[in-house]
Amino acid sequence: MAGQPIFILKEGSKRTRGRDAQNNNIMAAKAVAEAVRTTLGPKGMDKMLVDSMGDVVITNDGATILKEMDIEHPAAKMVVEVAKTQDEEVGDGTTSAAVVAGQLLSKAEDLIEQEIHPTIIASGYRLAAEKAVEVLNSLAMTVELSNRDLLVSIAETAMTGKGAESSKKLLSEIAVDAVTSVVDKNGKNSVDKDNINVVKKVGGKVEDSELIRGMIIDKERIHPNMPEKVKDAKIILLNSAIELKDTEVDAEISITSPDQLQSFLDQEEQMLKKIVQKVISSGANVVFCQKGIEELAQHYLAKAGIFAVRRVKKSDMEKLARATGGKLITNMDEITPEDLGYAALVEEKKVGGDSMTFVTGCDNPKAVTILLRGGTEHVVDSIDSALEDALRVVGVAIEDEKLVAGGGSPEVEVALRLQEYAATLEGREQLAVKAYSEALEIIPRTLAENAGLDPIDMLMDLRSQHEKGVKAAGLNVYEGKVVDMWKNFVVEPLRVKTQVINAATESAVMILRIDDVIASTRAAGPEEGGMPPGAMGGMPGGMPPGMGGMPPGMM
């Protein structure tokens, strides 16, 4: 028995450990970061992603790119998670988060080669991240909800380089107006982006996009005799159907004469008339119904000059309630004038060949709609992605009320302060903090590279300005100069930067601490067609003749 190997893993399992495991993980994470690095900044390029169905996505949004890429390596997936978390938390900075995570691991690889233990590097990185967040907080300025120009600048910065460049000003103003309309001011500002409905319609041009202070419902009126336009609309929002109710139990009605049949039909008609009369009596002239409206009821509503829409989505009904100030009604017997919503105008319009219902002119709406137009589907999708980022960052800025300059300036300032901080530390963590500060400079370096500028010259200029005390000195990639970012209105919410630092650091530390990767292979399934040939009953080629169960003639 002596010297016989002992196998504890299933056959086919693959195990990598020690330095090899660390190198593999770091290389995979770096490859993911490198894949999105060229998309960073105003001069970043786009990626075209084609999935297995042949659908095409054109984007330079880091989270979208990494989501569409079918990544298998487990360490690479962790970098994808960084971008995903960044997108969910703040909506912008996804590429930065992935690039910083990749660079932190690249710097850690150099330290590991100098025989510095990964746990010491991890400890140094955590210290550096805490200090970085502290420095960022000291750089932040306050923004008020009333400072519209600054909020528009935030939206413009988020949209820069994202395919919406030509109409950046218009879309930024739409984004700011939409977000400020839905702010809840209960002690602390809070923004629920779900109250902003974005409707995409191919056709027209980007400049035709508009903000509707109300709702757009992708439905048309149900009867041609109904008015196309209702001014001073009093709106009833119904959760129940305007139909005759079926009985809960099976019931049969026995009719023995034509008179009885006629009176039964008349009774049905009277019941429907009564339901419609309740709507008319409430004073409503517009009905949005979540369920169905029977044909006869449609006729009565049209005769009364009421505009009605049926089978409206539940989410749209809730937004209509927030926009118009109406209440969702389940019981028709309890309708009061206070339950009705109000809009200055409800009309049916054709947009891109489809009829839609516009509810506009609401008093202080808490739900609004943005109608996005564009020449092709890809253009509309690209603008929708850019607008999504703008809405999220404006919302974050209003909630936190804190801003920092953009253009790589906070990263350079934090890097310089970390260099000073490293000198105060004892032990090998000092090297990790220094490496962390160098890793952060990947952001201004990449901005310069993507703009075709010399990254070393630009970085030297940036450092020299920051050493002179110009804390907001950032890179103007259009002119190739270092300028004051506050004066150029290139600003971002503080949370975007702190989230990049936290998410990238946690991900890098987690990958660094792995020194053993055990991967079990998938069990090989049977060949196409189920069983292997000749495997029926364990006999080669199935059963011999005459073994089919019963002798002939016994059927």
From TrEMBL:
GO terms for cellular component: cytoplasm; protein-containing complex. CDD domains: cpn60 (cd03343). It holds the Pfam family Cpn60_TCP1. It comes from the Archaea. One of its GO terms (molecular function) is ATP hydrolysis activity. InterPro entries: Chaperone_TCP-1, Chaperonin_TCP-1_CS, Cpn60/GroEL/TCP-1, GroEL-like_apical_dom_sf, GROEL-like_equatorial_sf, TCP-1-like_intermed_sf, TCP-1_chaperonin, thermosome_alpha. Keywords: ATP-binding, Chaperone, Nucleotide-binding, Stress response. Belongs to the TCP-1 chaperonin family. This is Heat shock protein 60 family chaperone GroEL. The lineage of its organism: Archaea, Methanobacteriati, Methanobacteriota, Stenosarchaea group, Methanomicrobia.
